[in-house]
């Protein structure tokens, strides 16, 4: 499916819906895509590495997409520039087989200069087909801007598996999602967040990402005995001095972790 009717895309730029995707929906069309800087990306690799993927789809002519772009840039900046657990990506899916130059100029103009950005490369890269998987599996309705958050399942019981993860009781724990051969499909926990139409709600996305990140961290069992604080980390697992208005995690010598939100 290379082209959807342009009239449909224009209509969807106006409508808004908060929908849900089909159970066990796993996007397949994002393999070895090149961003406008020439770097290669694959959804499989990100999910296999345990990343949370924020996929933003935009149209060059969509006002809501233009207004949403600064939020997507903020998410990219605030969650580690794609060096932590959160990966933020943007895709031009409009009519016209846009080039890297067009997509790059759009992102610069509307406040999203650093997020890895994917054009249609003059018709050689099917970003629209990748978005179409979400369209047909997430209600066949809605509008632009569109943003989805995707997470993978992890194997908690077999250290020989490629996607083995220690302390991941919040995920698959019975080996049914263990992967042993490269290229084997990564099971997803699902598309856990769907925004279809209108300007994205940045606080809503942040809250959702924070909850997912908390699930990734093994909070451990709290034992009623003296314990010593050994480290304070941020959402990216980096040691940090306590600062105001930040979500932090205190790590103790008994293996437990406590979440703190400091307000001053």
Outline the biggest β-sheet: 5 strands, mixed
Question: How many separate domains make up the residues?
Answer: 2
Count of alpha and pi helical runs: 6
Topology-level CATH name of the largest domain:
Glutaredoxin
Descriptive account of the structure:
With 264 residues, this protein is of the alpha+beta class. The protein folds into two domains: 6-216, Glutaredoxin; 229-262, no CATH class. Helices cover 25% and strands 20% of the residues. It has six helices and ten strands. It has helices at 6-12, 43-48, 63-78, 100-109, 127-137, 202-216, and strands spanning 33-34, 40-41, 52-58, 86-92, 117-118, 146-152, 188-196, 229-233, 246-252, 257-262. The strands form three sheets. A five-stranded mixed beta sheet has the order 5-4-3-6-7, with helices on both faces. Strands 8-9-10 form a three-stranded antiparallel beta sheet, with no helix packed on it. Strand 1 and strand 2 (40-41) form a beta hairpin. The chain is globular, with a radius of gyration of 20 Å.
């Amino acid at each position: 499916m290379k082209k959807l009717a342009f009239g449909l895309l224009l209509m969807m730029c106006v409508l808004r819906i908060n929908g849900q995707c089909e159970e066990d929906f796993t996007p397949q069309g994002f393999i070895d895509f090149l961003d406008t800087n020439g770097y290669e990306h694959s959804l499989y690799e990100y999910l296999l590495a345990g990343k949370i993927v924020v996929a933003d789809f935009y149209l060059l002519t969509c006002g809501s997409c233009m207004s949403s772009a600064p939020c997507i840039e903020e998410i990219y900046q605030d969650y580690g520039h794609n060096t932590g657990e959160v990966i933020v990506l943007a895709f031009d899916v409009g009519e016209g087989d846009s080039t890297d130059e067009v997509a790059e100029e759009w992102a610069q103009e509307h406040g999203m200069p650093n997020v890895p950005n994917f054009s249609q490369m003059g018709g050689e890269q099917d970003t629209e087909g990748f978005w179409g998987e979400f369209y047909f599996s997430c209600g066949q309705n809605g509008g632009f801007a569109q943003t989805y958050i995707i997470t993978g399942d992890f194997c908690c019981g077999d250290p020989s598996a490629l996607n083995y993860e220690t302390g991941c009781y919040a995920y698959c724990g019975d080996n049914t999602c263990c992967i042993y051969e490269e290229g084997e499909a990564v099971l997803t926990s699902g598309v856990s967040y769907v925004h279809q139409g209108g300007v994205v709600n940045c606080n809503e996305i942040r809250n959702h990402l924070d909850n997912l990140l908390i699930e990734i961290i093994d909070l451990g069992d709290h034992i009623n005995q003296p314990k010593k604080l050994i480290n304070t980390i941020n959402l990216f697992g980096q040691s940090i001095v306590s600062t105001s208005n930040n979500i932090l995690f205190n790590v103790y010598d008994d293996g437990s972790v406590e979440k703190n939100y400091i307000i001053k």
